[in-house]
C-alpha cells in the first residue's frame, strides 16, 4: 500500500461496506456456480448416485449380507457403507473438481473475474463448497439406503463419524486442489486425476475393505489420507471414537496438501 | 473530434516497463488519457499493447514505472479500480453452460451502481440470445457479450482489447457506434487494436507501439500527416512526360510508370506542382486520381524501420490505395 496518510482514513471508512459487498459478491458467485453444477448430470451421477448404486449392487450378493466370522461377526455390506461414503469424496475431489478448476484457469474465467470487484478466489471457494455439499448429500444417501435396504446400523458414534467424514472430505478436496495447483493444463489435470483416483480407491477400501487387508499392507494403507480416514469411519460406525492416530494422519495430510495447493496454485 | 484531454488525465502511465524473463515486452511507455477521450493503442502483434493495458487493468504488476487510473494504483487499490474500470479481455471465456442472462445478472451484481443490463443487451443485439448458453454462442455473440460485461458496471473507463475481432462488418460498425455513444456519455475508452479503420474512425489520439516503445502519439490526422508520402496521385498523360523532371518536383517520394499510367507519391505540395507543370505544358491528365495516405501507410512507415519484413506489406498497401 502506498501513501498510508491518504489511504488509511478512506480505507477504514469503506471497510465494513466493502466486506458486506464482498460477501454479497461471493454469494452471487456461489448461487451462479450452484446453478451451473446442476447442469452437469455426469458429475452429479458419479458423485451423488454412483456410490449408492455400487453399494446396492454389492448388497445384492447374498454372501455379503451374511455375518462373517473373519470380520468379527460383521457383514461385508457393513464395511462397504463407509467405503461408499469415501468413494463419493474421491470422485468429487479428484475426478471432478480439478477439471473444473483447471478449466476456469485455462479458459481465462478466473482472469476475467479478477477485472471485476469480485475475486477469482470466490470461484474456487464456491467450487469447494459445492463439492463438499455434494459429498455430504452423497454420504447421507449411502447411509439412508444402507439403513433402509440392508439394515446397516447408523454410525454408533455419530460425533466421531461426522468428524471422520469431515476430515476425509477435506483430504479428498485437498488432493484435488493440489492436482489443480500443480497441473498446468486441463488434460494434465484429468490424467493425473485418473492416475491418483485408483490408488485412492484402493486405500479407501473400494476393492477390499482396509480391515480385510494383510497386516503389513494395512499398516501402509493406514498412512495414506483415505486409508486412515477409512479406518476412522469404521471405528465410528462400530461405536468407538476414532483412534487419534487415524484422525491425526488424515489431518496432517489435509494441512500438507492444502499448503502445497496454496503455495503452487497459479491463477493463470 | 470532440472532448480532448481538458481536465486532469484519468489514465496516467509513465515509464512503464515489463519483462517476461529475459524478454522486455514494454520498455518505458508513457501516455496520459483525458476523461472522455477515446485513446487508441495501435501496434503490430507482439508489440506490447496487451501487456500495457493489462498493467492499467491491474492484471499485471509493472517492473517499473507508474500507472494511475483516476489517481488510484490498479494493483494496490485493485478493489476500487475495478469498480470504475470495465474490461474486455482479448482471450477469455465464460463457463460453458452459463447463459447470457445469468452472466449479465451475475456481473452486474458485483458493482455498486451497475447499469441496467437489459437495454445494454438489446443495444448489443443479444436480447434473443438471453437464454442461450455461452458455449452455444457464435464468436460475434461472445464478443458482444464481453462488451456488455465490460459496460455493465457503469464504468468511468473501459479498456477494450481487440474490440471487433470476430465481428462481421455490420456488427463491427454497430459496435463502433456503440463506443461513440458510450463516450458521448462521458466514459473514457482505451482501445487496443491493430485494425486501422477502427482506430481512424474512433480514436481522438493514438499511441503507436512498436517493440515495447511508443513510436508515435498523435491524432489520426496527425499520424497520417507524418506518413512519408501522404498523397498518391496517378493519371494517364495526353503526351509523354520525363520521369526525371517529375522526380525533381518538390516533395516527390517516388515516380512510377505502369503501362502509361504515371504514379507519383508525395505531399500536397507535390500535387500542386504536378498540376502546374501539366498546365504549363498543355498536357491533360486522364483518369486523374489523388488519394490521401491512410493510417495504414502512416502505421507502416512508423513501424517498418525496425521490421524490414513489413516492407512488402507497405508496397501492397500503397498500391492498393492508388
UniProtKB/TrEMBL annotation, chain A:
Protein's organism: Streptomyces triticagri
Membrane topology: Multi-pass membrane protein
Transmembrane segments: 43-64, 79-101, 122-149, 161-182, 189-208, 244-265
GO biological process assignments: response to antibiotic
UniProt keyword list: Antibiotic resistance, Cell membrane, Membrane, Transmembrane, Transmembrane helix, Transport
Protein name per UniProt: Transport permease protein
Entry-linked InterPro entries: ABC-2_transporter (IPR052902), ABC2_TM (IPR013525), ABC2_TM_bact-type (IPR047817), ABC_2_transport (IPR000412)
Family per record: Belongs to the ABC-2 integral membrane protein family.
Superkingdom classification of source: Bacteria
GO terms, molecular function: ABC-type transporter activity
Coiled-coil residues: none
GO cellular component, one term: ATP-binding cassette (ABC) transporter complex
Positions of the ABC transmembrane type-2 domain: 42-268
Entry's localization field: Cell membrane; Membrane
UniProtKB/TrEMBL annotation, chain B:
MF annotations from Gene Ontology: ABC-type xenobiotic transporter activity; ATP binding; ATP hydrolysis activity
Main localisation: membrane
Subcellular location(s) of the protein: Cell membrane
A single GO cellular-component term on record: plasma membrane
Superkingdom per UniProt: Bacteria
Record protein name field: ABC-type xenobiotic transporter
Chain coiled-coil ranges: none
InterPro entries: AAA+_ATPase, ABC_transporter-like_ATP-bd, ABC_transporter-like_CS, ABC_transporter_ATP-binding, P-loop_NTPase
Organism: Streptomyces triticagri
Family label: Belongs to the ABC transporter superfamily. Drug exporter-1 (DrugE1) (TC 3.A.1.105) family.
